[in-house]
C-alpha cells in the first residue's frame, strides 16, 4: 500500500536517489540544502512524498517564494521536481501527492501555486484545478547550432539544416551586432557572484505593477547560491544604472535576471550590457534569455531567436506557465492570475537556473 505523507529529515538520501532514477540527474546534499532547507520563505522543506514498503516512490516538492502583486506581497508555492518512480506510474501517485499538497496549503498562508510544468505534469495539473496562463517565449542565440542539434538528438534533416545555417549565422551575428544600439560612453562593471544589496537597490528603481518575485536582499542572497550554476553580474554604471545576472552551466549561458525588472535601462544601456555578455561568452554553444531581457529591446538585434521560430522550435520545449489559486480568489489586488499581462517574470522565478 502506498502512503502519502510529509517530508522528514531522514528522507534526503532517498529523495536524491529517486531524482537520479527519474531524471538521470545526480544531485548532492549541498544542492538539496540550498534549494529546500535554506529557502528563506519556509522553516522546513515543503515536500510531499509517497512511500511504499519503506521505499520512497514519489515526491512533490513546493518551492516557497515571496511574490509582489501590485503593492501587496503574497506567499506563493512553485511546484517543482515532481517525480514518481517508473515502477509506480499510472497508479495515481502523482495525483495523490498533489491532492495532499493542495489540502495542506489551502488552509495555510500561501495564496497561489505557479509553475512551469512539462507536458505530462501539465495534463495532470489541469485536472486538479490549475489554469494555463500562457506558453512563455524564450530566446536563444547559438554559437554552435549543429552541436546543439546533435546533442538534442534531433532528426537528420534538422541537423543538416543547422549545419547549413551555421556559416551564414556568423556573418549575420556580426552584422546585427554592428547595428545594435550601444553606448560606448557607458562603462560596464563585471563581478563574480551577486551583490545582494546592490541588486536590491537596482530592483527598487523600477518595480513593475505586475506579479513577480520580491527582489530584496533576502531574495538575492539565497536565489543565486545554486551550486549547479556559476553566476556573474554585469552592471552599467550610467545615470540610469542597470544590471544583468548571468548564469553559466557548462557551455550554456543564461541571462537569468535583469535589474530593474520593470525596465532595465534605456535601450542603448541595455544593449551595452548585452554586448558585454556576448563578448565574454563568445565560446558558449548556447545563450538563453527570457522575454524581459530581450523582447522589449529588439531580440533580433543581437541574433537571438524565439523558440517559436525555425529551427529553434524543433528542439526547444515550450515553457508552459500554469497557476492555481489556493484561496478560491483568482484576482489578487486587481491582478488576474491567469492574465499573461499581469506577470513580469525572468528565469529568476524558475527553479532550474
Which descriptors would you attach to this protein?
353 residues, Aminopeptidase, 2 domains, 7-stranded mixed beta sheet, 10 helices, 18 strands, globular
What is the tally of beta strands?
Answer: 18
The proportion of residues forming helix, as a percent range, comes to 25-40%
- CATH class of the largest domain, named Alpha Beta
Termini separation comes to: 36 Å
Number of domains: 2
Mean pLDDT over the residues: 88
Radius of gyration: 21 Å
Helix and strand composition category: alpha+beta
Strand content: 25-35%
Largest sheet, strands/sense/barrel:
9 strands, mixed
CATH T-level topology of the largest domain: Aminopeptidase
Helix-strand pattern: EHHEEEEHEHEEHHEHEHEEEHEHEEEE
- What's the CATH architecture name of the largest domain? 3-Layer(aba) Sandwich
Shape: globular
Describe the structure.
With 353 residues, the protein is of the alpha+beta class. It has helices spanning 12-23, 29-37, 93-106, 119-126, 145-151, 156-179, 196-204, 217-223, 267-280, 291-294, and strands spanning 2-6, 47-52, 55-69, 72-79, 83-84, 112-115, 131-136, 139-142, 188-192, 212-213, 230-236, 242-249, 252-259, 286-289, 305-306, 319-325, 331-332, 335-336. Strands 1, 2, 3, 4, 5, 6, 7, 10 and 16 form a 9-stranded mixed beta sheet that branches. It has a 7-stranded mixed beta sheet with strand order 9-11-12-13-14-8-15. It is globular, with a radius of gyration of 21 Å.
Amino acid at each position: 500500500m502506498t502512503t502519502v505523507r510529509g517530508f522528514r529529515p531522514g528522507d534526503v538520501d532517498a529523495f536524491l536517489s529517486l531524482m537520479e532514477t527519474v531524471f538521470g540527474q545526480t544531485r548532492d546534499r549541498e544542492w538539496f540544502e540550498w534549494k529546500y532547507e535554506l529557502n528563506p520563505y519556509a522553516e522546513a522543506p515543503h515536500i510531499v512524498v509517497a512511500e511504499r514498503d519503506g521505499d520512497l516512490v514519489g515526491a512533490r516538492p513546493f518551492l516557497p517564494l515571496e511574490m509582489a502583486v501590485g503593492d501587496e506581497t503574497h506567499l506563493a508555492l512553485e511546484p517543482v521536481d515532481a517525480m514518481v518512480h517508473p515502477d509506480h506510474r499510472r497508479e495515481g501517485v502523482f495525483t495523490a501527492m498533489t491532492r495532499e499538497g493542495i489540502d495542506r496549503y489551502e488552509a495555510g498562508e500561501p495564496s497561489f501555486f505557479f509553475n512551469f510544468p512539462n507536458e505530462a505534469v501539465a495534463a495532470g495539473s489541469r485536472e486538479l484545478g490549475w489554469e494555463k496562463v500562457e506558453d512563455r517565449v524564450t530566446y536563444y542565440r547559438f554559437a554552435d547550432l549543429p552541436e546543439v542539434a546533435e546533442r538534442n538528438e534531433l532528426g537528420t534533416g534538422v541537423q543538416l539544416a543547422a549545419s547549413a545555417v551555421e556559416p551564414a549565422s556568423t556573418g549575420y551575428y556580426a552584422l546585427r551586432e554592428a547595428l545594435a544600439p550601444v553606448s560606448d560612453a557607458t562603462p560596464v562593471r563585471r563581478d563574480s557572484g551577486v551583490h545582494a544589496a546592490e541588486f536590491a537597490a537596482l530592483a527598487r528603481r523600477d518595480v513593475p505593477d505586475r506579479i513577480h518575485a520580491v527582489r530584496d536582499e533576502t531574495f538575492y542572497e539565497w536565489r543565486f547560491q545554486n551550486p549547479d550554476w556559476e553566476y556573474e553580474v554585469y552592471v552599467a554604471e550610467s545615470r540610469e544604472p542597470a544590471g544583468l545576472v548571468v548564469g553559466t552551466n557548462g557551455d550554456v549561458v543564461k541571462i537569468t535576471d535583469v535589474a530593474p525588472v520593470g525596465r532595465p535601462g534605456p535601450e542603448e544601456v541595455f544593449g551595452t550590457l548585452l554586448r558585454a555578455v556576448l563578448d565574454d561568452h563568445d565560446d558558449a554553444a548556447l545563450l538563453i534569455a527570457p522575454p524581459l531581457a530581450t523582447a522589449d529591446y529588439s531580440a533580433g538585434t543581437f541574433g537571438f531567436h524565439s523558440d517559436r521560430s525555425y529551427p529553434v522550435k524543433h528542439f526547444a520545449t515550450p515553457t508552459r506557465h500554469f497557476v492555481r489559486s489556493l484561496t478560491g480568489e483568482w484576482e489578487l489586488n486587481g491582478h488576474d492570475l491567469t492574465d499573461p499581462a499581469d506577470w513580469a517574470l525572468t528565469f529568476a522565478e524558475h527553479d532550474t537556473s
